[in-house]
Automatic annotation (TrEMBL):
Domain of life of the native organism: Bacteria
PANTHER family for the chain: ACETYL-COENZYME A CARBOXYLASE CARBOXYL TRANSFERASE SUBUNIT ALPHA, ACETYL-COENZYME A CARBOXYLASE CARBOXYL TRANSFERASE SUBUNIT ALPHA, CHLOROPLASTIC
Any one biological process term the GO annotation gives: fatty acid biosynthetic process
Signal peptide: none
Annotated ranges, domain CoA carboxyltransferase C-terminal: 37-291
Name assigned to this protein: Acetyl-coenzyme A carboxylase carboxyl transferase subunit alpha
GO function terms (MF aspect): acetyl-CoA carboxylase activity; ATP binding; carboxyl- or carbamoyltransferase activity
EC number(s) from the headed UniProt entry: 2.1.3.15
Functional note: Component of the acetyl coenzyme A carboxylase (ACC) complex. First, biotin carboxylase catalyzes the carboxylation of biotin on its carrier protein (BCCP) and then the CO(2) group is transferred by the carboxyltransferase to acetyl-CoA to form malonyl-CoA.
Gene it is expressed from: accA
Keyword flag Cytoplasm: yes
């Protein structure tokens, strides 16, 4: 098990539990009572730790190396899945995966960022940072869904769009802007969920939908806490203060009206019970699709555009001339 810094008290308890089980196994001793006591301690300590997480701690959880990624959720949620590749312009971006899936008998186009489960795969997937061809591939799949009347499901988990020179040369900003323009007008239901990191345009590039959700221990912001800290304080040492100031948690996003709901995670985070998390995510996605599927395409598009038009707060300030 991998323990984050704020989970260190749990690590020592798990070590004790493992030692007791080993003693019982090697010495043929009944340690069931001691095991139960320690398991109860672990459960109570876990509740204590996770009942009041800070913004930075939730950022750490969203990046947990054992946290499930898009392909895991697709495998768990879809009985059948056929991956489709390429943007038909340049290449196949491995940082975004997508294709046709069967969600309890309903065909959907499901796509999302994929970070990779180990060092080699993370390099192969470019750590979930998509190039322009990734967003163009996503748009191609969405247009395919529109042609055949399939709902679109987008799973968001990226530290941002790839910032390399070659990505800019191939039109990174235009590709993301084009996706936003086209997603606003898709005639089929679009459901989005932030399953990990939701950073900057890399996230919003596949994040405009009729319903947008966030898992409980995820974040959504125009910039990461580290980058914000380096800009404002010229150092990464203030990332915790930056995380609080950015108000990037699911609770904040729901309060601001940017997302439509929060999907609770199992105690300890999505990585502690990935199968259960997949079931919870699937249930919410199916519910969201059902809510908007019976609307006419025109009504759905109008509601989607109105939803985004109403995000944000402004205050009219009287000028001296107006007075």
């Amino acid at each position: 098990m991998v323990f984050l810094e704020f989970e260190k008290p749990l690590e020592s308890l798990y070590e004790q539990l493992e030692k007791i089980k080993q003693v019982g196994k090697e010495g043929d001793v009944d340690v069931s009572e001691m095991t139960r006591e320690l398991e109860n301690k672990i459960k109570n300590k876990r509740k204590e730790i996770y009942s009041n997480l800070t913004g930075w701690q939730k950022v750490q959880l969203s990046r947990h190396p054992e946290r499930p990624y898009t392909l895991y959720y697709i495998e768990q949620m879809c009985r059948k899945f056929v991956e489709l590749h390429g943007d038909r312009y340049y290449a196949d971006d491995k940082a975004i995966v997508g294709g046709l899936g069967s969600l309890d008998g309903q065909t959907v186009v499901i796509l999302g960022h994929q970070k990779g489960v180990n060092t080699k795969m993370r390099q192969y997937r470019n750590f979930g940072m998509a190039n322009p061809e990734g967003y163009r591939k996503a748009l191609r799949l969405m247009k395919l869904a529109e042609r055949f009347g399939y709902p679109v499901v987008c799973l968001i988990d990226t530290p941002g769009a790839f910032p390399g020179l070659e990505a800019e040369e191939r039109g990174q900003a235009e590709a993301i802007a084009r996706n936003l323009f086209e997603m606003a007008q898709l005639k089929v239901p679009v459901v989005c969920a932030v399953i990990g990191e939701g950073a900057s345009g890399g996230a919003i590039g596949i994040g405009l939908g009729d319903r947008v959700y966030m898992l409980e221990n995820t974040w959504y912001s125009v910039i990461s806490p580290e980058s914000c800290s380096s800009i404002l304080w010229r150092s990464w040492d203030y990332k915790e203060q930056a995380a609080e100031a950015l108000k990037l948690t699911a609770d904040h996003m729901h309060e601001f009206g940017i997302i439509d709901g929060i999907i609770k995670e199992p105690l300890g985070g999505a990585h502690s019970a990935p199968e259960e998390m997949a079931k919870l995510l699937k249930r919410q996605i199916k519910k969201a699709i059902a809510e908007v599927q019976d609307m006419t395409p025109e009504d759905r598009i109008d509601a989607r555009i109105n939803k985004y038009s109403q995000i944000g707060v402004y205050e009219r300030v009287a000028t001296e001339d107006a007075k």
